[in-house]
Q: What sequence folds into this?
């Protein structure tokens, strides 16, 4: 599936007000930062003001209130918000998956040394302590939450009895791990790499291994925005798709790492950022791995919000969302209408790398 070159002509006319686009600073924000830095928004004729937010609850509330027009969001958020789970109900959708994979399960150094990363040993090493282990997740409705719960479930651990989960903003997770407030966590890059580099934690598992093809970050908008500002929405999706393609090009890795390392971006060492972009990934404890799919920005089937991806997410909801809602929130038809003239091959022919839905879900 080949992309046509992005146009440099203005794609829309009308509103001169900049779209307010929110994001949480982490590796998955790369397409937004690249689109601004390299002019992809301007090339598609859309004015955008990026707004860095502290966490995903802030993103959710600002989308609901209209303070943000669109946002980088965790993949389950369009479903959760449309259902009104843990928030006011807000009819939302996504027409673009921006990243696939990119999460790590990290254990504190102390817990790693006693278990060697085997979750089945968590019960053995707990001893007679009445307190369950504490693990951090970035948000209740997140792939990180789903993946961590499944990883612990496969080892026979029972929530609330053997472990408890707490929500911690991604930028603060390493500090909580270092302080001993949590025993482990599941979070997006580059924070797992930072935990290893600073000697605070050890990577026990990669989400690319646990659920190949799982959607991680999406572009979130209210349905009213999609309906009322269709051309701006289209321009925004296309600009970010251009940026995703740029981020995925191996020749751009060094430039991307340098851009993200800037203080106004993520402000982290290039070495921490480069590993997940295709370099040698340090797992800690003398272990490393070389894989090109630790985080994926673009490729066959990567960016389409397919029903297969929606179904994988829905399997972790209790109760399960109605099937009609999956099509409404993961709007593959809208993605295809926006991108139909960008491909030399039909998007219908693209491979859908959606993960297989679990036989049963263990998350509320």
A:
């Amino acid at each position: 599936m080949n992309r046509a070159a992005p146009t440099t002509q203005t794609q829309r006319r009308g509103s001169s007000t900049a779209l307010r686009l929110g994001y949480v600073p982490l590796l998955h924000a790369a397409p937004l930062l690249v689109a601004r830095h390299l002019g992809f928004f301007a090339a598609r004729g859309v004015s955008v003001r990026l707004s860095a937010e502290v966490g995903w609850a802030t993103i959710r509330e600002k989308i609901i209130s209209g303070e943000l027009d669109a946002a980088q969001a965790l993949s389950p958020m369009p479903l959760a918000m449309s259902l009104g789970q843990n928030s006011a109900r807000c009819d939302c959708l996504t027409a673009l998956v921006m990243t696939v994979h990119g999460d790590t399960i990290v254990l504190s150094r102390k817990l790693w040394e006693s278990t060697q990363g085997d979750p089945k040993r968590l019960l053995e090493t707990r001893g007679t302590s009445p307190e369950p282990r504490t693990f951090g997740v970035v948000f209740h409705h997140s792939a990180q939450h789903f993946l961590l719960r499944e990883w612990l479930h496969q080892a026979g651990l029972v929530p609330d009895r053997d472990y408890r989960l707490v929500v911690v903003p991604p930028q603060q997770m390493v500090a909580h791990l270092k302080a001993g407030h949590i025993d482990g966590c599941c979070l997006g890059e580059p924070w797992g790499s930072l935990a290893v580099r600073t000697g605070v934690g050890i990577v026990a598992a990669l989400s690319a291994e646990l659920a190949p093809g799982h959607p991680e970050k999406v572009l979130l908008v209210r349905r009213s925005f999609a309906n009322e500002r269709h051309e701006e929405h289209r321009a925004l999706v296309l600009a970010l798709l251009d940026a995703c393609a740029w981020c995925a090009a191996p020749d751009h890795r060094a430039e991307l790492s340098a851009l993200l390392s800037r203080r106004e971006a993520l402000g982290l060492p290039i070495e921490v950022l480069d590993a997940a972009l295709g370099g040698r990934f340090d797992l800690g404890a003398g272990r490393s791995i070389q894989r090109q799919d630790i985080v994926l920005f673009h490729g066959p089937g990567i960016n389409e919000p397919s029903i297969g991806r929606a179904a994988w997410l829905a399997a972790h909801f209790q109760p399960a969302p109605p099937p009609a809602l999956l099509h409404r929130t993961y709007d593959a038809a809208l993605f295809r209408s926006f991108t139909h003239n960008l491909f030399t091959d039909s998007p219908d022919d693209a491979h859908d790398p959606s993960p297989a839905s679990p036989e049963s879900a263990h998350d509320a």
The chain has 17 helices and 14 strands. Residues 30 and 351 are 24 Å apart (CA to CA). The domain at 103-210 is CATH 3.40.190.10 (D-Maltodextrin-Binding Protein; domain 2). The radius of gyration is 20 Å.
